[in-house]
From TrEMBL:
Keyword Cell membrane appears in the UniProt entry: no
Organism: Vanilla planifolia
Domain of life: Eukaryota
Record-listed E.C. numbers: 2.4.1.207
Cross-referenced SUPFAM superfamilies: Concanavalin A-like lectins/glucanases
PANTHER family in alphabetical order: XYLOGLUCAN ENDOTRANSGLUCOSYLASE/HYDROLASE PROTEIN 8-RELATED
Name of protein: xyloglucan:xyloglucosyl transferase
Residue ranges crossing the lipid bilayer per the database entry: none
Matching InterPro entries: Beta-glucanase-like (IPR000757), Beta-glucanase/XTH (IPR044791), ConA-like_dom_sf (IPR013320), XET_C (IPR010713)
GO biological-process terms attached to the record: glucan metabolic process
UniProt cross-references to Pfam families, sorted A to Z: Glyco_hydro_16, XET_C
GO molecular function: hydrolase activity, hydrolyzing O-glycosyl compounds; xyloglucan:xyloglucosyl transferase activity
Enzyme class: transferase
Any one cellular-component term (Gene Ontology): apoplast
Length: 163
């Protein structure tokens, strides 16, 4: 955590992301963090209510983007080679927007469940039935690496893996 990682997952996508732009979104509220690709939930990290350092109740949220670094966990232990001849690797974004509350010390009201913002309405607290079905399909078919099952890297799995 703290920019170091340790909570990685890797997915195959159901399309070639280099051929066209796609919609990538993150819903991050007190209840969970959900990563979406073209409105399909591909990762859900639920808040178990215990101190963890990355839910908005403890410190301001921030986002950054990087291009995967080819560590062993991401290359299936080196089985997938990185083609450096394609460097430099570039990501391009369009129509980027952020809708969030501003952090105000010591503790902004918007980080708790206020229901004042779209991300903190009841419908944003859990996945709907269609999203649950899509997410289950992603988990069954597209997850290549999940830290919650990597006993070699984590002999004692992180607490949130029990959820």
């Amino acid at each position: 955590m703290g920019g170091v990682g340790g909570r990685e997952m890797r997915h195959m996508l159901w399309f070639d992301p280099t051929l066209d732009f796609h919609d990538y979104a993150i819903l991050w509220n007190y209840h969970h963090i959900v990563f979406f690709v073209d409105r399909v939930a591909i990762r859900v990290h639920k808040n178990n209510g215990k101190p963890n350092g990355f839910f908005p109740s403890e410190k301001p949220m921030y986002i950054f983007s990087s291009i995967w670094n080819a560590d062993d966990w991401a290359t299936r232990g080196g089985l997938e080679k990185t083609s450096w001849k394609n460097a430099p690797f570039v990501s391009t974004y369009k129509d980027f927007s952020v809708d969030a509350c501003k952090w105000e010390d010591p503790y902004p009201a918007c980080v708790s469940t206020t229901t004042e913002h779209w991300w903190d309405q009841y419908d944003a607290w859990t996945l709907n039935a269609d999203q649950v079905e899509d997410f289950a399909w992603v988990r069954r078919n597209l997850v290549i690496y999940d830290y919650c099952v990597d006993l070699e890297r984590y002999p004692k799995l992180p607490e949130e893996c029990d959820l």
